[in-house]
From TrEMBL:
Taxonomy, superkingdom: Bacteria
Source organism: Streptomonospora nanhaiensis
UniProt keywords, alphabetically: Metal-binding
Domain Fumarylacetoacetase-like C-terminal: 62-263
Start and end residues of each Rv2993c-like N-terminal domain: 1-57
Name recorded for this polypeptide: 2-keto-4-pentenoate hydratase/2-oxohepta-3-ene-1,7-dioic acid hydratase in catechol pathway
Entry annotated with the keyword Metal-binding: yes
GO molecular function term, any single one: isomerase activity
Keyword Phosphoprotein (UniProt): no
GO-annotated biological processes: carboxylic acid metabolic process
InterPro entries: Fumarylacetoacetase-like_C, Fumarylacetoacetase_C_sf, Rv2993c-like_N
Segments crossing the lipid bilayer: none
Length: 266
């Protein structure tokens, strides 16, 4: 099941996305209620996805990110962010960094290098803390696509990552939440990132250093996650700079594609 958050006629709603088998056209069927609250019903209203504006599928209280979770990315970043660790590297992006599919990513004037980082993201289903590995699947609502946009030069000069990762618009997520994947399926998905149609990243989630149960168990060992919180799982090798005017598309197999254009900050 694909669950989208969208707006039409200035009204925000949730809906179920399905593909018409004859035309290949995606439609969104509006639902009443909040999908993370459990019960919801179809309202009977239906529209083409192209006729609505897709929004970030959730508004998380926080975005928890895992750094250095692909060995090839650790190798390419060793001169910038230091060595990897045996435990997951955790950092936060503020909720104000969240953007939706099609939203602009603003290039901050204080940075000379802004990078894309395509990632698989987990959406949390319920309040959870100290989750054992074997219960990780019980707290996952679904999966979406994310771009951990980073001001790379500021990451290097600041010696910590908050400013470099935290600018408004630096966490696009979407286009929807896919709830139908098992842990096993999510653990081996192809992830690609293109810039203006050129492939820059091409990896698989099977390359994780710390798999999804390990990440959830580790993060919840010291932090309570709330319904709708988003957990980014790391990026594969191939990260690199983008310039204003360029278009980034992150695609995760069986989940969807997330496209955003880089624009100057006025």
């Amino acid at each position: 099941m694909r669950i989208a958050r969208f707006s039409v006629n200035d009204e925000v709603a949730y809906g179920l996305v399905d593909t018409d088998q004859d035309s290949g056209q995606d439609y969104v069927s509006r639902i009443s209620g909040h999908p993370l609250m459990g019960q919801f019903q179809l309202t009977g209203e239906r529209a083409k996805v192209e006729d609505v504006r897709l929004l970030s599928p959730v508004l998380p209280s926080k975005v928890v990110c895992i750094g250095k979770n692909y060995a090839d990315h650790v190798a390419e970043m060793s001169g910038i962010t230091g060595p990897s660790t045996e435990e997951p590297v955790v950092f936060l992006k503020p909720s104000t960094s969240v953007a939706g599919p099609g939203d602009p990513v603003f290039y901050p004037p204080v940075s000379q290098r802004v990078d894309f980082e395509g990632e698989l993201a987990i959406v949390i289903a319920r309040p959870c803390r100290e989750v054992p590995r074997e219960r990780a699947k019980d707290v996952i609502f679904g999966y979406t696509v994310a771009n951990d946009v980073t001001a790379r030069d500021l990451q290097q000069t600041d010696k910590q990552w908050t400013r470099a990762k935290g600018f408004d618009s630096f966490c696009p997520i979407g286009p929807w939440i896919e709830t139908g994947l098992s842990l096993e399926e999510a653990g081996d998905l192809r992830l690609t990132t293109t810039v203006d149609g050129e492939v820059r990243q091409d990896g698989r989630t099977s390359q994780f250093i710390h798999d999804i149960p390990a990440v959830i168990s580790y993060v919840t060992s010291f932090m309570t996650l709330l319904p709708g919180d988003v957990l980014l799982t790391g990026t594969p090798a191939g990260v690199g700079p983008v310039q204003t005017g360029q278009e980034m598309t992150v695609t995760v197999e069986k989940v969807g594609s997330l496209t955003n254009r880089v624009v100057p900050r006025d």
